[in-house]
Amino acid sequence: MSRVKDTNETQAKLVAILDNLSKEERQLLTDVLIAERAKLYMGLPRGIHEDLWRIVTETIR
Amino acid sequence: MIFEELMLKDFRQFAGEQCLRFATEPNKNVTVIHGFNGSGKTTLLNAFTWLLYNEFTLDFEAPEHLDSEAAFSNVAYGDSLTVSVRAVFRDGQRKYSVTRTRIVQKSTDGSRLLVEPGKLRLTFIDESGETREPSNPQDTLEQMLPRRLFPFFFFNGERIERLARADAYEEIGKGIKTLLDIELFDRSIGHLEGETSKKLRVEIARCAGEEGEHAREELDRLLEAEEKQTGRLRQFERNRAALEEEREAIDSKLASMPDLAKWQAERKAAEEREKDIKRQMKQRKEELAKEFSRSAYLLLTPDVLDAAKAVLSGARQKGEIPGPIKRQFVEDLLARRKCICDCELVPDTVAYKEVEQWRDRAFSDALESAVTVTQARIESFGQRAEECIRRINDLQAIRDELYSSLQDVQEELSELSNKIGDREQGEDPVKLERRRREVGELLTTCILHIADQKKALDELAESIRGKKREIDALDIADEKGKLAQRRLDAVSNVIAALKEIREVRYEELRQDLSDQLSDVWRGIAVKDYHARLDDDFRLSLTKDVGGQVEPVRGASTGEKQVLSLAFVGALIAKAKNTFERSKQANHLFRGGLYPLVIDSPFGNLEVEYRRDVAKWIPTLAPQLILMVSESQFRQEVEQELLPRIGKEWILKCETPRNTGRDIALLGRSYPYVIQSMDGFERTVFEEVEL
């Protein structure tokens, strides 16, 4: 029961953190996580800096 | 990732083409594979690791020879033999088929020539029902089950205790971080803070002229120093883990030696007594200090009191005290000019002068009262001084007694240390004992270095923050610079949010895993030990010693195995739970369903532990594949696993020797070891009827 409560509390904290971001910042965060997840299996994720630069420049214009 | 089938073709003792099907239902998620020693249980485990990662477990011998001897013997000179392992599994909504193939050619002299070491092919059916083949199958596979995690899912139960070693924290930390998405956040934060922010700051600095350029160079220098400092800190942390591991290994060795175990226990008890005596001595010392500060002046008063007593006594002897007549009485006579003998007292007469002399000899009331008080105080001071001396003497006596006990204990410790050190058998206990002391000193030094490095890192981090603030505040004039500044602001906000999310997730995970580990352990532990995962991801057993929580030194291999299994179970259960929640909208973490494939899961465990492990492991892992020998699959294990078994197989072992034997399962008898007809050893899968 306490674990369920903890998980719900965690979820509420995460929502509050995301709500503090602007719309484009939320988009930036989501896209960064998707790009990183796609290369997470690599010890040294080749090309990740280019991927992130592209995401930043395309999201914040 | 849930395995449905595993097909082997001429892989080691599995000659020909053979297929195993696994239990996949949530409530019937256990597959048990029975095998005699040498029938291929470890080979099966390595079929999984070779197929998925082209890797082998440490206990797998001669990994260069994967082909079946029986099959290779039938290959004509110059022809080739194809060895392969194929698995069908589900991951999410997709069904995959993965095959690794090795081709070995038989040269004219009969030797093996490796033509193809291990080609991987992966196909899957996508959501629309179409078959697809990714161009990079290894990468696709490792996205589903990262390589560094395979030791958590495919392992030999007899060697899993390594996770409970002090130096395994790095492996455990990486496992948790990778499996439960912390690494995803660490990498995102690292990359955004590093290259991306750096590039944006360069743009801003470029637009802010010389001042900006200078600030950027300073920042680069600080970042470089931080990287070096972090490297040094990591090295010290690794050293500490290695030293802790070594000390535990020494303790285990010393504990395992006959007699030494007893002496070790005696030493432990004596060390506790020594600690207790020192604590009491400290307490007595404080009481003595308090007594001195409150009453020590009384110790200096006896001489003064004796002198006062002598004065008063002399005066009494002379008849000066108590006063023979009151001064007031004499003054009244002089004032009335009449003596007590009714004689007239006229000034300047002899009679008047006589009475006047009595006035000078008489005591005043104040003096009379002072003499009385002084007499009383002299008595009281005397008593208090005696009381103080008695208390100090008592405390000193206790302290002396404690000091003497301390000497006794220290002599006992020295004697025990000599006994442990002088023992000459097996590994040299003298060296072990000496090394234990050295390791203790090195550890203290190492811990001090770590604290210094952390402090230096904190200072550097503060300087870096300051420099970044300086760059962010630079006056940017043109549009390009303003855009770069806006991007940097957005990236900084995202980094801050990622850090907050990471912290929330990390704390939840650590606490949750530690609680679950503790629950599992409490349910099965025979001894009154507690299991925990500390802030540094160290798996540890602790116990309560006189109200103090202390680590268990020299825990047994079996205890460490159970602790490690409990940890792996908790980890997989958490990943499963995260996966189930990830279907909710906006869920940032993915988790996953991971199988557990264990060779000899109950290897060194006592009956009680076997029963409990068999009970809880199927409830934590979504799929469990166990390779067991007859002795490992004992009654208590079978009873607990039976309701969860969905598939059961026998590795029927064919051997050239005539040593046939059967195995009885669920009331039926199956051939277990049979004689081979062609002189080769091979193993055949046979399904048990459930």
Helix/strand layout:
The complex is a heterodimer of chains A (61) and B (690).
Chain A: H1 2-19, H2 23-38, H3 48-59
Helix pairs in contact in A: 2-3
Chain B: E1 2-11, E2 14-21, E3 30-35, H1 41-53, H2 69-73, E4 80-91, E5 94-106, E6 112-125, E7 131-132, H3 137-144, H4 150-153, E8 154-156, H5 169-179, H6 182-207, H7 209-256, H8 260-295, H9 302-317, H10 327-336, H11 350-361, H12 365-422, H13 429-472, H14 479-524, E9 530-533, E10 539-545, E11 548-551, H15 557-581, E12 595-599, H16 607-620, E13 623-628, H17 635-641, E14 645-655, E15 661-665, E16 668-675, E17 682-687
Parallel strand pairs in B: 3-13, 3-14, 8-12, 12-13, 14-16
Antiparallel strand pairs in B: 1-2, 1-4, 4-5, 5-6, 6-7, 9-10, 10-11, 14-17, 15-16
Helix pairs in contact in B: 6-7, 6-14, 7-13, 8-12, 9-12, 10-11, 12-13, 14-15, 15-16, 16-17
Keywords:
heterodimer, A: 61 residues, mainly alpha, flat, B: 690 residues, alpha/beta, 8-stranded mixed beta sheet, 6-stranded antiparallel beta sheet, 17 helices, 56% helix, elongated
Structure description:
- The complex is a heterodimer of chains A (61) and B (690).
- Chain A contains 3 helices and no strands.
- Chain A has 61 residues and is mostly helical.
- With 690 residues, chain B is of the alpha/beta class.
- In chain B, strand 6 (112-125) and strand 7 (131-132) form a beta hairpin.
- In chain B, helix 7 runs antiparallel to helix 13, helix 10 packs antiparallel against helix 11 (350-361) and helix 12 (365-422) crosses helix 13 (429-472).
- At the A-B interface, helix 1, helix 2 and helix 3 of A face helix 3, helix 6 and helix 14 of B.
